């Protein structure tokens, strides 16, 4: 009986972990996929042995993905396990940093199932010394991988208003003294990246849990529940942050059925303290 391959998915955001696990199982249903909610859990599980691949988020509290990577590469029992860094940091500096520390490969959020399948395949065929065809046989792959479907029909029944949409409890670590939300009076431009491309948008409302934006219909529509990042910059201090999220709601921004102006709500799934701090400052800068 062929050996089952064991994959460890590490991310502090449950939603992202679930997406990655689902993507791996979609491509390789025969793999055994384990999960860890943070770097410390990952280290504890890896110590038990038996893993063939690690898919790990970079930005996690306490023990980051980079620290997990360095720890693995310094342990002779774990140093040969392929390690794929998963993060929203796609600039050259961070790519080089991950590779220099021993990352096997690198994948930037948001990504498609096809991209995840490609990266997993490349990492395992190299480490196991087998062909892609042999790996598919090991993983029971039957060419099931599909990309995100276009959102041809907008979900008009889902509200994108912060005062109507379901509230997620604000993290207790967020100091009560700082601004909790913002409703810009002037035009505030930001960017949303999803698996189909990048969208320039205007921020309508934002808090620590979600953001509501409006944008012109793009060539490739985003998909409900798709991974995304909300990218924003504050010129006052020169900071740029990319907050991991998922697409919670899509609807027309006007009453006309043929409108090209759309409204989207992104739910944040990112607890990075630096990004939380930057969001708080951002609220102060843009609030009308």
Automatic annotation (TrEMBL):
Keyword Phosphoprotein attributed: yes
Signal peptide: none
Domain of life: Bacteria
Record PTM 4-aspartylphosphate, positions in chain: 57
Domain Response regulatory: 6-124
Record-level GO BP terms: phosphorelay signal transduction system
Keywords of this entry: Phosphoprotein
Descriptive protein name: Response regulator receiver protein
């Amino acid at each position: 009986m062929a050996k089952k391959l064991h994959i460890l998915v590490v991310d502090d955001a449950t939603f992202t972990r679930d997406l990655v696990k689902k993507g791996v199982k979609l491509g390789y249903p025969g793999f055994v996929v384990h999960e860890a909610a943070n770097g410390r859990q990952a280290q504890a599980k890896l110590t038990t042995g038996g893993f063939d691949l690690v898919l790990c988020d970079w930005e996690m509290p306490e023990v980051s993905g980079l620290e997990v990577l360095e720890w693995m590469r310094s342990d002779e029992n774990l140093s040969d396990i392929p390690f794929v860094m998963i993060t929203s940091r796609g600039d050259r500096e961070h790519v080089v940093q991950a590779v220099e520390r021993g990352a096997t490969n690198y994948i930037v959020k948001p990504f498609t199932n096809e991209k995840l399948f490609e990266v997993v395949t490349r990492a395992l065929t190299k480490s196991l010394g087998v062909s892609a065809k042999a790996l598919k046989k090991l993983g029971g792959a039957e060419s099931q991988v599909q990309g995100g479907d276009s959102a041809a029909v907008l979900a008009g029944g889902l509200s994108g208003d912060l005062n109507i949409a379901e509230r997620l409890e604000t993290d207790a670590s967020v100091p009560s003294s700082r601004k909790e939300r913002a409703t810009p009076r002037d035009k505030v431009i930001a960017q949303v990246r999803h698996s189909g491309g990048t969208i320039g948008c205007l921020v309508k409302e934002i808090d620590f849990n979600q953001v509501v934006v409006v944008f012109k219909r793009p060539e490739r529509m985003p998909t409900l529940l798709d991974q995304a990042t909300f990218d924003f910059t504050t010129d006052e201090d020169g900071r740029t942050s990319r907050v991991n999220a998922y697409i919670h709601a899509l609807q027309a921004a006007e009453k006309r059925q043929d409108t090209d102006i759309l409204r989207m709500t992104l739910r944040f799934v990112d607890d990075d303290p630096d990004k939380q701090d930057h969001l708080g400052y951002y609220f102060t800068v843009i609030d009308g």
